[in-house]
Amino acid sequence: MPQRHSISFVLNDQPVAIQADPGKSLLDLLRNELGLTGAKQGCDSEGECGACTVLLDGRPVRSCLTPVGKIAGRQVLTIEGLGAPDGLHPLQTAFIEAGAVQCGYCTPGMLLAAKALLDRQPEPSRGQIVEALEGNLCRCTGYSAIFDAVETAAARMRGEGRDQARAALPSPPASSATPVGGDALRRDSVEKVTGRAKYVEDMAVPGLLHARVLRSPHHHARLLSLDPGKAERLPGVVRVLTAADVPGANDLSDYSRNEPVLTPVGDTVKMKGAPVALVVAASPEQARAALEAVGVQYEPLPHTFDVADALREDAFPIYQGGNVLTSHRLAHGDLDAALAGSDVVVETGYQTTYLEHAALEREAVLGYVDQEGRLTIVGGTHEPHWQQAYIARLLALEPREVRVIMPPTGGSFGGRQDPSPLLATALAVHLLRRPVRLVYSRLESFTASPKRHPYRVGYRIGATQDGRLTGVRVRIAANTGGYDAHGQYLPDFAVVASGGAYRWQAVDAQAQSIYTNGPKGGQFRGFGTPQSNHALECTLDELAQQLGEDPLEFRLRNALEQADVSFLGYPIAESLGYGAVLKAIRPRYLESRRRVEAFNATADEAVRKGLGLAGMWYRFGKSGSLRVEAHAELARDGHIVVYCSAPDYGQGIATVMSQLAAEQLGLSRDLIELVNADTALTPDSGIQGASRATYWVGNAVCRAVHNLELAIRGTAAELLDCPPSDLELVDGRVVVQDHPDRSLSLESVAEAFDSLGKSRRVPGFFDLSSQFPEETRPKYTPHFVTGAQTAEVTVDLHTGQVKVDRVVAVHDVGRVINPLDARGQIEGAIMMGLGAALMEEHVPDHSTGFGSYYVPTAKSTPEIEVIPVEVPSYQGPLGAKGLGEAAILPSTPAIINAVSRAIGARMRQLPATPERVLGTIQGRPPEGSRS
Amino acid sequence: MTEYLYPASVDEALRCLEAYQGNARLIAGGTDLMPDLRKARISPRCLVDITRIPALDQIAVTQDFVEVGAAVTLATIRDSAFLNQHVPALVDAARSVGATAIQSVATWVGNIVQAMPAADGAIVALALNAEARIVDGHGERWRPVESLFVEPGVSAVDPCRQIVTRLRFPRPPSPSNGGPCLVVGTAWRRIGRRPSLVLPILACAVKMCLRRDGGRIERAAVALGPVAPVPYRARETEALLQGRPPTGEVFAQAGRVAQGECHPRSNVLRASREYRLAIIPALVSDALSTAAERALSLVQ
Predict the structure, then answer these.
(1) Does the beta-carbon distance from B101 to A22 stay under 8 Å?
(2) Contact call for residues A803 and A838 (beta carbons, < 8 A)
(3) What is the mean pLDDT of residues B34-53?
């Protein structure tokens, strides 16, 4: 007889019998009813992301698309059944060792897809690996490390045989290993490869309520009325909250000066997706149903997504006072004279587009009132202490009444700087005094979350016949969308990135941040700088071509040197490696050029290869205070605890902090515990943006640890009766130099601290305020990193399709603290830059998820070579600089320059879709282009 | 709560459908069905899963036909040695649908019954002259797949009352089979905004029957999508090819004819009508060349 309701199957080798709705998805069953949260939901259960992949009778399936009825009598393997921490599968081990795990959200699905492959094909080719993983999106790693890991695991499994397929946990670096610069494994990878890491959606909380945000369907409209009555009477609905319920200031504070948490009746919504009401119900389904029952009336208003429209004299004002949010200008030297003295002047107009962060974890925040009655918010963020202040302001509380905790987080790329989801959750928890979770749908994330600002950039740029740059005039119109969302700060970043690490005789650069009714812009890997750098590096390529100059030699001839006056009008304040970067890439560049020329000499008429080069400079560590704090503590049992706020959303910064502390003390990383990004436990180490954490927070950690070491020596010196300078830390003991018999364990030193009444926890500060006196202090510290990348592409001239074959990335990052993670950051950035170059484009109203916004998949991955250039920083910890964002800057223009050179015409609009490439080949101007 | 039934035979499946009088629905892979269920675009009271009916999961090669059962997954097609050797267009089309984890469970029949104008499986089915075995309360019959598409997303097959049990298409003539004077080659071309995991901007399937001496094209089938409300068979192009020699010049001409007879639409995300039209000649002539090369390679 056919089966219903009662379903028996084998789950991770154990027979299971359940009662379930057979039409529901396996993903929901696993996560919600069986408590197996290793399978993740990254899309709206449309099968678009692969994060929910499990094995059904050994075959990979999307559990979100698998009805529970299908598993009857069959074998299901989830990540929880692949290998536990004490018995990892070789794939799990290899993923950790290869740096294939960053945020970890795609990891369970990737691992299972890879396992299905290796079970069928123990000796897969690279192509088979790519095909097997093609359906699993990863936004962090750039895939290469994942391919490497699968190859390594396959080789080991073949070598070791099936019986020994379960390898031991990779051993952490031995205590003698150098904590910095070695192959330092991540602190959290084991949790992530076993599916044990608990992200916000994975946390089980008794009595949890579920919140959903009602959002404007209009791009611009006046909110006339809101009637929650009918919705509140629906089953399971607890409350419908509106602006009238906000106890304090209904805003996002200085993050976004004109953006409400919930739009008040009578006010206007400035973009589609603007928040209007917050529905709280007993289940996510009930909350979703209630959204549709809230009575809302709008008066639609004229709208535009186009900065040119918004700037017109007769434009409909989105805000009183006009549609320009802020502008910034940088000018020095005599531009007219510089251009007049040029032999060649080129003018260009470049356009970029809205981009989506597309982190695999959707916006998800959990809130509850803890046992001390304190409002506690758990959610991905870049600055827990700032969120604490925002929440306190919203709710008219004291900051100490609010605790913000950073959980394991599935990627950010800047997207999680938006406080909106945390504030909305806090409002619900505070008013209802019950635990609440808010999870955006992917559609909602696409509609309402911040995007990369689209730019229109116009250059006039000159050079002499001998290839020396003269003057640069640049005008940038940045689309900040419907709300400020930090767009107020954008013009400065846009301008600074528009000049690069080059010598200029004269500069006139201006940028405006302009309101439209498009999605709000926000922080996104390199905030405001990749767009400018793209236009600059493409324009330089055009100029080099007009001069008949080699693009590499042209850049090298004009490369800024340390003591030079920079584009800013003054020298920069950190070590500069741009010349070294360009010299380091030269051999690879010449190899690529030979390869491309040889190919084109014999290729048929339908296909051409191109080689592109682009450089960059990136101002890192710009934001926040010049005084950053961290703490170090000698725990009672003798290990060291480091306290700081360096949120880790997958980039691995927590591991870096541990490495720095271990290196500073000469101790094994095993002895270092890190307490990170929790306002109740850690000091405020400032916002984590602009790739500042290693340099700024890392420095504070080093200083805290150094101060602790001084205190340890001081106390130990009294006990050992010798000068503190005679003491050293060896293997967790304090030893008198040359007298190994005279020593103390750190545990006994800790005991002595307590008996002497000395604090075992000491602060450390990294403070540059005296180096930049207030009177002459620039708004942002002039610290820059530089890099250059080459891209080799193949273009189908008949269809406009582009394949990126190879990318070489050379970056000066100062001293590399964690080589594996540094490579991972750069490879991930390259793939994100590739997406921006060729496929990614958020089109308002049309881009609703991963099926309509095209992030690169495994098959788009080029061969990538990463070459670090380690020009030590003057002041960074152990010589390190910032990295995470910078690497994306050259990727897009290098690819576009390669395409332009392959087709013999300039691609000036992003992304270079097959349609735009073919249009450019055939001499059709891109749609919507105007200069 | 939905019922979920595993009938043991096609007859039992039909009886299940009948018993629910339109409120039961067939399910095979379910990869298109699940989002519809979740969003309540459909709300059947019962799902009738045909994937455990014996023999429906088989690919059978008979004297004249290749038959593919309704429970045969795209992964099975993708990995079939026979199809890799003889019908590469079908293999490549199967590989184009979603990704491995979709192909694990999704079926060719399901892809066709969804009736989307860009469905890879539907486009290749047209080029192969595939037929569908339709079973319902009135009996069984073969119908050309081409006749099953009503409008975008609407199939002539009613999944609440009818079952497509298998597809068949003529077995490619091979030296040992039937075609003393013919050789057959197939090809698949597809362009998208990224290499895969995306709906196509345009896809093209070709099957070409050549005289063994390579002298002329006996007949060719050319199918494209999305260039019309339903998967499209380019008959003017086919007429041009018939009897002509398989040369680059002829294929280029065929591409231009295809361009003239197709009527693609603009899609904000994927491509404009103009672009789709612009690449049809390259896509079609490229697919024809590959198919001809493959056919002629059988002669050596």
Answers:
(1) no
(2) no
(3) 95
Instruction: List pLDDT tens digits, range B248-299.
Output: 999 999 999 999 999 999 999 999 999 999 999 999 999 999 999 999 998 7
Instruction: For residue A783, give every residue at least 6 positions away whose Cβ sits within 8 Å of its Cβ, in sequence order, or none.
Output: A572, A573, A574, A619, A620, A621, A695, A873, A881, A882
Residue A868 is inside which H or E element, if any? strand A863-869
Measured at the CA of A769, the angle between CA A768 and CA A775, to 5 degrees, comes to 140
Judging contacts by C-beta atoms under 8 Å, the chain A residues touching residue B193 are: 839, 854, 913-914
Kindly state which CATH superfamily the domain A209-302+357-448 is placed in: Aldehyde oxidase/xanthine dehydrogenase, a/b hammerhead (3.90.1170.50)
Check residue A888 and report its DSSP letter.
Answer: G
Q: How far is CA A884 from CA A526, A675, A889, in A?
A: 9, 22, 11
What structural domains does chain B harbor? Answer: 3-49+58-170 (3.30.465.10), 182-297 (3.30.390.50)
Q: Provide mean pLDDT across the span A69-74.
A: 97
A719: confidence class by pLDDT, cuts 50, 70, 90: very high
Q: Which of A580-594, A763-777, B81-95 has the lowest mean pLDDT?
A: A763-777
Provide, rounded to the nearest whole percent, the portion of chain A with pLDDT above 70.
Answer: 96
Higher pLDDT, B87 or A171: B87
> Residue A514's closest CA among A458, A476, A473?
A476
Of A851, A914, A919, the CB nearest to B191: A914
Nearest to A612 by CA among A283, A894, A194: A894
Report the alpha-carbon angle A91-A97-A100, nearest 5.
Answer: 70
Name the closest residue on chain A to residue B105, using Cα atoms.
A61
Within chain A, all domains assigned CATH 3.10.20.30 are found at 6-81
Q: Which residue in the set A67, A606, A860 is minimally distant from B194, CB to CB?
A: A860
Chain B contact set for A64 (CB, 8 A) = 34
CB contact under 8 A, A798 and B279: yes
Average pLDDT over residues A110-125: 98
Task: Give the DSSP per-residue string, A774-806.
Answer: GGG--SS---EEEEEEEEEEEEETTT--EEEEE
Hey, what CATH topology would domain A90-200 get?
DNA polymerase; domain 1 (1.10.150)
Using CA atoms, how far apart are residues A470 and A564, in angstroms rounded to an integer?
15
Query: Is the Cβ of B3 closer than 8 Å to some Cβ of chain A?
Result: yes
Alpha-carbon distance of A281 to A284, in angstroms, equals: 7
Q: Is B110 on the interface with A (CB under 8 A)?
A: no
**Residue B139 to chain A, least CA–CA distance (Å):** 24
CATH classification code of A6-81: 3.10.20.30
In chain B, residues 174-233 whose CB comes closer than 8 Å to chain A: 191, 193-199, 201
Taking alpha carbons only, the member of A53, A143, A131 closest to residue A98 is A143
Q: Is A80 helix (H, G, I), strand (E, B) or coil?
A: helix
Average pLDDT over residues A734-753: 94
| Between A172 and B232, the higher pLDDT residue | B232
Is A25 in contact with B38 (Cβ distance < 8 A)? yes
